[in-house]
Amino acid sequence: MTRSTTQPTVDDDIVMLTVPADGGYLGVLRTATAGLAARLHFALDEIEDLRIAVDEACAMLLAIATRDAELECRFSVTDDALTVEVTVPTTSGARLPAESSFAWKVLTALTTSAKATADGKQATITLLTRRAAEF
Predict the structure, then answer these.
(1) For residue range 99-110, what is the model confidence (pLDDT) as tens digits?
(2) Residue 5 domain-assigned?
(3) Confidence band of 20 (pLDDT split at 50, 70, 90)
(4) Could you say which DSSP state residue 23 is in?
(5) Which residue, 72, 96, 95, is CA-closest to 84?
(6) Parallel, antiparallel, or unpaired for β 13-20 and 70-77?
(7) Is 74 among the domain residues?
(8) Domain for residue 54, yes or no?
(9) Is residue 4 part of a domain?
(10) Which H or E run contains 117?
(11) Cα–Cα dist 123/79, whole Å
(12) Which of 50, 127, 63 is CA-nearest to residue 96?
């Protein structure tokens, strides 16, 4: 039976990583992303697309992060999808780029879906990528 859900269940894997909000640590998140996508048997080009998307999302968040902040990254692994949720505390009045910006065009082109939330204290970007159907 194939389950098609993005909401984690008891049988799904959740991986949490926290790294300093510094560009030097993004390689850790890219590597974790690639490893988890490979575990789901994503194609090599899908893995690379997701790595680029995670890198772009983190770059957006680093631009509005508070000093000495940490990026919290939550990976949810389901049977056919990987959801990556990256959160960072933000500076007062910080805003993410508009959904019409080039950065968002990149995220939506490289993933199944991308969304963002910000509440004035923190911002989160959520990326969902489904494995391509096998023929």
Answers:
(1) 889 989 999 999
(2) no
(3) very high
(4) G
(5) 72
(6) antiparallel
(7) yes
(8) yes
(9) no
(10) strand 113-118
(11) 27
(12) 63
pTM over 0.90: no
Q: 57-96: per-residue pLDDT in tens?
A: 999 999 999 999 999 999 999 988 999 999 999 988 888 8
The Cα 102–Cα 12 span in angstroms is 33
Amino acid at 36: L
CA–CA gap between residue 59 and residue 64 (Å, rounded): 9
Domain that holds residue 35: 13-130
Structural domains in the chain (count): 1
How many Cα atoms are found within 13 Å in the side-chain-facing hemisphere of 92?
A: 0
Residue with tokens 């974790």: 32
* CATH number, position 111: 3.30.565.10
Beta bridge mates, 84:
75, 127
